[in-house]
Every structure is written in C-alpha cells, then in structure tokens.
UniProtKB/TrEMBL annotation:
PROSITE patterns, alphabetized: HEXAPEP_TRANSFERASES (PS00101)
Protein name: Acyltransferase
MF (Gene Ontology): acyltransferase activity
Annotated family: Belongs to the transferase hexapeptide repeat family.
Acyltransferase among keywords: yes
Upper classification of the organism: Bacteria, Pseudomonadati, Pseudomonadota, Betaproteobacteria, Burkholderiales
Annotated organism of origin: Pelomonas aquatica
Repeat keyword on record: yes
Keywords of the record: Acyltransferase, Repeat, Transferase
UniProt cross-references to InterPro entries, sorted A to Z: Hexapep, Hexapep_transf_CS, Trans_hexapeptide_repeat, Trimer_LpxA-like_sf
Length: 206
C-alpha cells in the first residue's frame, strides 16, 4: 500500500469516526459540513446541540448543556460546556444528589432551555470551562484553562478564573470588518488528510 493510500485510508476512518460519534449522541441535532470530533468526547443536552460548518472539536471535550456553535469554531481538547443550574439545590430535606436534575420532568422550563451560544470563528482553548447562559461573540478567543461565567464580546481575548479581558484580537474596527468580509468571500474546507490538503482561500475585497 502506498503512503498516500495509507493516509487516505486513515482519513476515511477519521471521517467515519466523526459520523459515528454524531450518531451515538442523539443530543447532537444538526451539523454542518467539515465537522471533526475527536475521541473521548461526551455530548448531552436537554434540548439539543448544533454545530455550524467546518468546526473542530478536540479530544475529551464535554458538552452537557444546550449549545449552538457557529461556523469555523475551534474547540480544543478537554474543554467543557456545562450547565450552571443542572441540579436543584434549595429543596428542604432533599440532598442535592437527589434534587431536580435538568433532564428530569421536574426541571423548570427555563432551566431546560438554558444553553451556550458560540458565534462564528471562535477559539475555545484547552481545558476551558464555559457555563450555560453565556454567549461568546464572533472571533473571540478563550485562553486555556479559563472559566467563562459571563458573555464575551466579539473579538475579545479572555483568560483566567473567572474570565477577564486581556486583549483584543484586532485592534481596530476596520481590521475586524475587513477580516469578516474576506472570510465571507473566501473558501475554507477541512480535510482529514492533513493541513496541506485544507482549502484556505480568503476572499479578495476592495
């Protein structure tokens, strides 16, 4: 078997693995083209998880809350999306272990609906934790190990526990608008064969 044939076989197996991981997690309700899901991931949500186009999900990622993830999202290994109200804590005489759970019929509707929104072109770093009720704006970066408890504005870079702003991805509005226009006019496609086979063609803008 040639080196290319072996690489193509491995790429095909990785594509099948992603399809299998989607199939075995019924909480994943929709996926866009070019999705990659690494091994060891866990997905569960009361109402659903949705992935946009060309998303990458690393190994051992846990998403256990409703989530809507935009195009070109990059979620590094061991990141976690978790519900902040998954277990009832205020029922007298009932241990929290036995309190209402977000997936039970006793859960309040607003708790079941709560989730996370990750807009397009976002990078969630290794081991970051994002709590439900949060929106991470377009183009934002969440550093490794960060705990996100509040919304992150577009193109903000956050780090720490809890997350705090440490910078901006682009320094001015013109650069942000140009980036978005070039991205919208461009063509980007992931390949399991490796980076040298990816399509990375930013659009030309005036």
């Amino acid at each position: 078997m040639s080196l290319f044939s072996a690489a193509a076989l491995k790429a095909g197996l990785r594509r099948l693995a992603t399809r299998w991981r989607v199939w075995r997690h019924p909480s994943i309700r929709s996926v866009g083209d070019g999705l990659h899901i690494g091994k060891g991931c866990r997905f569960w949500a009361a109402e659903g998880i949705h992935f946009g186009r060309q998303c990458y999900v690393g190994k051992d990622v846990v998403i256990e809350t409703n989530a809507r993830i935009g195009d070109f999202a990059l979620i590094a290994s061991r990141a976690a999306f978790v519900g902040r109200h998954d277990h009832g804590t205020d029922r007298l005489g009932v241990p929290m272990r036995f309190g209402p759970w977000v997936g039970s019929k006793d859960a309040a509707p607003e708790v079941r609906r709560e989730g996370i929104v990750v807009e397009d072109d976002v990078w969630i770093g290794f081991g970051a934790v994002v709590l439900s009720g949060v929106r991470i704006g377009r183009g934002a970066i969440v550093a490794a190990g960060t705990v996100v408890t509040r919304d992150v504005v577009p193109y903000e870079i956050v780090a720490g526990v809890p997350a705090r702003s440490v910078g901006r991805r682009y320094g001015d509005a013109f650069a942000r608008h140009r980036h978005e226009a070039m991205m919208a006019a461009g063509r980007f496609e992931f390949s399991e064969l490796g980076y040298e086979h990816w399509v990375v063609e930013p659009g030309a803008v005036e």
